[in-house]
Amino acid sequence: MLWLALLLVVALALAWLLWPARPVVALAADVAPGRVERGEYLVRAGGCITCHTQREGGRPLAGGRALQTPFGTFYTPNLTPDTATGIGAWDDTDFVRALRFGVSPSGAHYYPAFPYPSYAGVTDADLLAIKAYLFSLAPLANAVPSHDLPAWLSFRPTLRVWKTLFFEPRVFAPDPARDAQWNRGAYLVRHLGHCGECHAPRNALGAVRPGPLSGNPAGPDGDAVPGIDAEALADWSRSDIEYLLETGMNPEGDFVGGAMSEVVDDHTSHLSADDRRAIARYLKDDAAGAAAGVPPVARIESGVDG
């Protein structure tokens, strides 16, 4: 009888791993004027262009950029509305499900090299505005290579185990004890701008460690990424941070290099002065530095089936 019980446990475990994920997504209609223009701004704030454009001669947002990580090489997908190689066949629910739950339209789990653990906190309205902008672009056909991963990572259903251990979809809720500027900075740093995906250390399984944004010795492409928490920025003023986000120049007069130079060129230099000010306020706040990565959030009530 013992072997029958073990067989049943194995069968149930396999069924759990292989069952397609179908998170429940309930969306209110969003037909606000200016949604496409707002979506363009949010794409800048969300860092989409740098990662989803090949370095040499790549077409914007057509994907194919290689991301070297300790787990293998990931290739970013095509975000243009091409129906064959991009996201042109996705509806609003598909889009929100991907960014909030890390699940594809077919029910497959995405690798967390796609920063859905941070994007999960982005509001429905912002996600739908981003989609509206992406779907306003010309479709670009670009078949992206498959990820180059070791065999033990190539079985996507095991990502359900990773998510069970390290991922709980949560949407940002403003901290009532903080003012609007601080909360805007928290939203941009923790979620839309997903700063912790590069600037926070990770554990052995690649999950971002809760706590200060104290840097990552093994960041994207193997480069060390500096800390940006309150301790690391102790000698910086808020205006120093704002100026770096706008121009790429630090208080010593040097310019940032590597991936951060692209982030400044493609994204933070396009933010409003108010948003750069909110980011600086949040990063310089001692309490924010201590709590970065542990956001004040509300549990998503829709839940996840399966």
Give a topology summary.
Blueprint: H1 2-18, H2 35-45, H3 48-51, E1 66-69, E2 72-75, H4 92-101, H5 116-119, H6 124-134, H7 159-166, E3 170-172, H8 180-192, H9 196-199, H10 238-247, H11 258-266, H12 273-284, H13 286-291, E4 297-299
Antiparallel strand pairs: 1-2, 3-4
Q: What are the segments in which pLDDT stays under 50 over at least 5 consecutive residues?
A: 4-19, 286-306
Following the backbone from N to C, one meets helices and strands in this order, namely HHHEEHHHHEHHHHHHE
What is the CA–CA distance across the termini? 28 Å
**Largest beta sheet, briefly?**
2 strands, antiparallel
Helix content: 25-40%
Whole-number radius of gyration? 20 Å
**Based on CA inertia axes, which overall geometry fits?**
globular
Q: What portion of residues belong to β-strands?
A: under 5%
| Strands ordered across the widest β-sheet | 1-2
Helical segment count: 13
Mean of all residue-level pLDDT scores = 85
Secondary structure: number of strands: 4
What structural category arises from helix and sheet content?
mainly alpha
Give the gist of this structure:
This protein is mainly alpha-helical and 306 residues long.
Question: Please, could you describe this protein's structure?
Answer:
The structure is a single chain. The protein is mostly helical. Helices cover about 40% and strands about 5% of the residues. The protein is built from 13 helices and four strands. The chain has helices spanning about 1-20, 35-45, 50, 90-100, 115-120, 125-135, 160-165, 180-190, 195-200, 240-245, 260-265, 275-285, 285-290; strands at about 65-70, 70-75, 170, 295-300. The strands form two sheets. It has a two-stranded antiparallel ribbon with strand order 1-2. A two-stranded antiparallel ribbon has the order 3-4. Helix 2 packs across helix 6 (about 125-135) and helix 4 (about 90-100) crosses helix 6 (about 125-135). Residues about 5-20 and about 285-305 have low confidence and may be disordered.
